[in-house]
């Protein structure tokens, strides 16, 4: 496999999913905030935000539509792209699930 073929196999899914990860920062942060303040805090693994007293129901009204919309956009972008690439299915889906996390990880590491 030559250098050009490798780039064609990896570059388009990687770029598309990293670009999807830029607006994905919002749903990823919402999921993290929800997890830190409720189930992880109840388990004693994190400390709940002291000013968070609105309850979980209000957050679910916000989080569910945002995460659902992002997941739908991610799926609609990746489903046809998967059929156009020569990557093995498990490799493609692993790449497409981890690449959108890169912008969020960059923000966490720089803060």
Structure description:
With 111 residues, this protein is mostly helical. It has five helices and no strands. The chain is elongated. The termini are far apart. This is Integral membrane protein. The chain crosses the membrane at residues 12-36, 56-77, 89-109.
Quick structural overview:
The protein is an all-alpha fold. It has five helices and no strands.
Please supply descriptive tags for the structure shown above.
111 residues, mainly alpha, elongated
Question: What's the helix and strand layout?
Answer:
Layout: H1 3-37, H2 39-42, H3 56-83, H4 89-98, H5 101-110
Helix pairs in contact: 1-3, 1-5
Transmembrane segments: 12-36, 56-77, 89-109
Keywords: Membrane, Transmembrane, Transmembrane helix
Protein name: Integral membrane protein
Overall mean confidence score, pLDDT? 89
**Can you give the helix content as a percent range?**
over 70%
Classify the secondary structure makeup into a structural class. mainly alpha
Largest sheet: none
Number of helices: 5
Distance linking N and C termini:
40 Å
Spans of at least 5 consecutive residues whose pLDDT stays below 50 are none
Shape: elongated
- Helix/strand order, N-terminal first: HHHHH
Could you tell me the strand content as a percent range? Answer: under 5%
What's the number of extended β-strand segments? 0
Radius of gyration, CA atoms, in whole angstroms: 17 Å
């Amino acid at each position: 496999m030559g250098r050009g073929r490798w780039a064609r196999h990896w570059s388009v899914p990687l770029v598309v999913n990293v670009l999807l990860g830029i607006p994905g920062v919002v749903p990823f942060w919402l999921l993290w905030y929800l997890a830190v303040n409720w189930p992880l805090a109840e388990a004693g693994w994190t400390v709940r935000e002291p000013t968070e007293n609105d309850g979980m129901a209000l957050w679910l009204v916000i989080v569910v539509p945002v995460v659902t919309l992002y997941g739908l956009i991610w799926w609609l972008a990746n489903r046809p792209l998967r059929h156009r690439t020569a990557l093995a299915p498990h490799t493609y889906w692993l790449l497409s699930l981890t690449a959108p996390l890169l912008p969020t990880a960059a923000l966490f590491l720089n803060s």
